[in-house]
Amino acid sequence: MAASFETFEHGADIGIRGRGKTLSEAFENGAKTMFSLFVEDLDTIIPRKSVTISCESFDIEGLFVAWLNSLLAESDIQRLIFSDFKVRIQDLSLMGTAMGEPFDLSRHQRGVEVKGATFTELVVRQDDEGWIAQCVVDV
Question: Which domain holds residue 124?
């Protein structure tokens, strides 16, 4: 199986992609990819605090974008950088948990600011290796 989370080139913005054996795992890894942009090394973020996220959408692709944008909003409100995610998807509803900690300049190297997830190059599909969830994020 290919890498579980990765970025891809897209002009001035950045494409993110999550892969997984299940749809939930692909969504989790897509979120991990997005938050890996916030810091130089996502492994330095300790999942000390958890936040519950719920969202729904009109289709599965829209649910991925809603998930990512909900995470960005909670990250901003709570002043946390998330590093670990758990997702449960039922129909077109998602219930998830994001775990992380506040940014600490003494331990974390700042990456780029992600402003939002977009519908550009949005794909959520299953292939022979599992699930892929991707989109472009505005940075």
Answer: 5-138
CA proximity to 69, closest of 92, 86, 90, 53:
53
Strands 123-127 and 116-117, how do they pair? unpaired
The model's pTM: 0.91
94-103 residue pLDDT tens: 999 999 999 9
Other Cβ atoms closer than 10 A to 93: 12
Q: What is the mean pLDDT of residues 12-16?
A: 90
Mean pLDDT across the stretch 12-20? 93
The CATH code of the domain that includes 34 is: 3.55.10.10
Number of structural domains found in the chain: 1
Three-state DSSP state, 113:
coil
Cβ partners under 8 Å of residue 1, min gap 6? 19, 21, 129, 130
CA atoms within 13 A on the CB side of 8: 14
Distance, in Å, from the CA atom of 26 to the CA atom of 36, rounded to the nearest integer, reads 15
